[in-house]
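Researcher: Sequence recovery benchmark, item below. Answer with residues only.
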């Protein structure tokens, strides 16, 4: 008997007078317990979705008539600067939907017990790699039941931890997140960003480390990418000139001791009247070299490519004139890197779709003078990033969607491979002045751990610096990677994780997860909440879909714009592979994804409703004909296209989940989630999709409901305190257990 099923039946029985939970002879749930659970489910299934009025709006897009029955759920679109601002009516409708969802999910047998069980797993702590400034090691750490991570410092790697910043002191509600930290060169000042309730609009503040006081300085506007001058006299940062305008990015310089109003602008985002294309890209970014000599400036031209410039920072501060040295401009590739003295080590996809590292002399920045230090890998490995230690480059490759770290000297001679704890996801945090570095590692069966390594002795076993204790035995879990063929014959990889000894009888409850976009790679990671799923006999599969970055630039290109359907075909083929290999069957299979992955699972609901029993559609994009009009979504036009283009309109219309709902179709059970404070993906997508599915589905809502949960205290998901993350995990898990038949066995 699966443990969660037993808990559900016992909990249901205990709620009924005179019910004996277990049969004394067998130790299995008694007939009375099973009956009580059935009664509990029967009560849940009496709930019905609230009625939603239709108010048709008809658009003609490139001559095609498009009817939208739920435009009113977008909110107030009368002010172009505040498209989709909420109205009281939409708020009341959302409250009704949330109440319906709570009535269903909270009434399922065993939910409180499941939440308690998940809490014990999710109270596993977390820790970041330290940022080292002299003897001072700065890092973030969350202990057990803490709502948010705090910031600590150690003097030396083995020093006693000293608490510097506790977000609960900043905000007792637990909703404030410290989003980033950046210490000054001497470690006496610590810039940090914080935001509240998931809105991600970080405000910069500065901590005087020795005095243990936060200075009065505050810089608002979604601040990021801070780099200090070496004498701590000021710092370069990126923010939004107007936080309400996501297309107002700028790179600024702040001089310590001067008012923020005197901060100097280094580079800003183009306005639409200057260059319509560049105005709707992510725009500028900047960093200051550790020695304070050079500014490294970039300008994103789409979701894949950027221009890159160098500038003499000392000259700019003196003259006020920014003389940019063009390293790469107008080229179809990505560029980024680090200054080491007067040499810029640059990772680029130019003439190398899987990445290469070149050395650039600012005095001779033209392409003909670039020197290849690390060439593109001949074996198909993808360079995911690199860091620089004293005289060494630590280059992280992706090979078959897992990490491999190779070391090179600054001339490009390979000096070895860093010894990793196993197959998983790894990265190195190094410092220019030292060969000592920190290695981060995680996998499906390995909790996130930080190790100390010496880059001159890569074969040595990494020395554990810190690892959270976990209440599970990773040795009980099996991880495998399998390959399958997509619709057009392309080979696609997939990680499959489950309890050792699992019988492949075609009847295992299975979650299939995917993303497939923006060159984001799905690599192994540890999720303590999944352990209860494994213990209950569940299978967890993660597909490395086209559109991601697991296999380089070509893999990404094969899943964007007019080729987006490849992503959906890859996911469908993954599901069919799991069924063919007898891991599961359609009635025991669920799909899950968030953000771009929510678009993926939304498309699965409309394209192959027969292939899955349930879907979790998290913080999703779903109305692909209007998405670009809201929040920061014009940044994603290079990834998806826009209905403003006739050719791209046809592609988007063909797969847009909201526009492909068909009345009378027996849809699977669906849980759609959103965050009211989301500054990335507007919650209107979730609202409209839920309303349309509830009206269209031929499935009985008592058996396969369409549920909507809009979190009023969250955004896209970042920064949620522990309590809310546990609640969300319990909601999603109990929903899937119900739908996959795990509560009534």
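Model:
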């Amino acid at each position: 008997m699966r443990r969660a099923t037993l808990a559900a039946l016992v909990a249901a029985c205990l709620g009924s007078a005179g019910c004996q939970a277990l049969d004394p002879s067998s130790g299995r749930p008694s007939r009375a317990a099973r009956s009580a659970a059935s009664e509990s489910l029967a009560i849940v299934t009496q709930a019905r979705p609230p009625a939603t009025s239709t108010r048709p709006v008809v658009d003609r897009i490139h001559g095609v008539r498009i009817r939208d029955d739920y435009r009113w759920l977008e909110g107030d679109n009368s002010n172009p600067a505040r498209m989709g601002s909420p109205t009281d009516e939409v708020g009341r409708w959302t409250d009704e939907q949330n109440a319906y969802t709570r009535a269903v999910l909270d009434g399922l047998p065993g939910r409180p017990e499941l939440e308690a069980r998940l809490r014990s797993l999710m109270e596993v702590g977390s820790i970041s790699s330290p940022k080292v400034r002299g003897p001072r090691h700065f890092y973030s750490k969350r202990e057990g039941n803490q709502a948010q991570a705090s910031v600590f410092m150690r003097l030396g790697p083995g020093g006693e931890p000293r608490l510097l910043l506790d977000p609960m002191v900043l905000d007792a509600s637990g909703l404030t997140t410290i989003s980033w930290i950046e210490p000054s060169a001497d470690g006496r000042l610590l810039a940090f960003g914080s935001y509240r309730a998931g809105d991600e609009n970080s405000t910069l503040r500065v901590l005087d480390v020795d005095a243990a006081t936060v200075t009065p300085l505050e810089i608002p506007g979604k601040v990021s990418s801070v780099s200090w001058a070496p004498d701590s006299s000021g710092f370069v940062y990126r923010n939004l000139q107007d936080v309400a305008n996501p297309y107002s990015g700028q790179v600024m310089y702040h001089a310590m001791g001067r008012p923020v109003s005197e901060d100097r602008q280094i580079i800003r985002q183009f306005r639409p009247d200057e260059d319509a294309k560049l105005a709707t890209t992510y725009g500028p970014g900047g960093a200051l070299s550790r020695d304070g000599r050079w500014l490294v400036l970039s300008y994103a031209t789409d979701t894949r490519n950027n221009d890159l410039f160098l500038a003499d920072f000392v000259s700019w501060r003196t003259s006020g004139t920014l003389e940019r040295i063009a390293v790469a401009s107008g080229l179809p590739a990505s560029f980024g890197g680090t200054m080491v003295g007067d040499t810029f080590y640059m990772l680029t996809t130019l003439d190398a779709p899987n990445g290469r590292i070149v050395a650039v002399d600012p005095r001779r920045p033209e392409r003909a003078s670039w020197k290849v230090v690390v060439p593109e890998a001949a074996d198909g490995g993808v360079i995911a990033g690199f860091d620089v230690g004293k005289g060494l480059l630590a280059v992280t490759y992706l090979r078959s969607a897992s990490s491999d770290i190779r070391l090179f000297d600054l001339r490009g001679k390979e000096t070895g491979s860093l010894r990793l704890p196993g197959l998983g996801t790894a990265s190195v945090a190094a410092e220019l002045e030292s060969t000592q570095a920190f290695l981060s590692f995680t996998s499906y069966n390995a909790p996130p751990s930080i190790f100390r390594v010496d880059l001159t002795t890569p074969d040595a076993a990494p020395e554990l610096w810190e690892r959270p204790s976990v209440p599970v035995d990773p040795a009980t879990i099996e991880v495998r990677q399998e390959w399958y063929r997509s619709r057009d014959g392309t080979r696609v990889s997939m990680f499959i994780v489950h309890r050792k000894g699992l019988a492949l009888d075609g009847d295992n409850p299975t979650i299939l997860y995917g993303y497939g976009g923006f060159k984001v790679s799905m690599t192994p990671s540890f999720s303590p909440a999944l352990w209860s799923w494994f213990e209950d006999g569940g299978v967890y599969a993660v597909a490395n879909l086209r559109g991601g970055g697991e296999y380089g630039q070509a893999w990404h290109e094969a899943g964007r714009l007019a080729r987006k359907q490849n992503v959906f075909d890859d996911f469908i083929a993954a599901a069919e592979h799991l069924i063919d290999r007898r891991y599961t069957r359609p009635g025991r299979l669920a799909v899950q994804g968030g953000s771009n992955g929510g678009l993926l699972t939304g498309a699965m609901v409309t394209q192959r409703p027969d292939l899955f029993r349930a879907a979790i559609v998290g913080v999703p994009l779903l109305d692909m004909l209007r998405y670009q009009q809201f929040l920061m979504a014009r940044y994603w036009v290079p990834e998806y296209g826009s209905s403003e283009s006739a050719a791209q309109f046809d592609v988007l219309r063909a797969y847009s989940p909201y526009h492909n709902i068909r009345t009378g179709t027996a849809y699977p059970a669906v849980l759609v989630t959103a965050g009211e404070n989301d500054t990335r993906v507007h919650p209107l997508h979730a609202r409209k999709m839920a309303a349309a599915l509830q009206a269209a589905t031929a499935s009985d809502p008592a058996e396969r409901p369409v549920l909507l949960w809009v979190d009023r205290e969250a955004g896209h998901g970042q920064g949620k305190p522990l309590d809310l993350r546990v609640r969300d995990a319990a909601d999603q898990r109990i929903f899937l257990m119900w739908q996959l038949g795990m509560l009534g066995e």
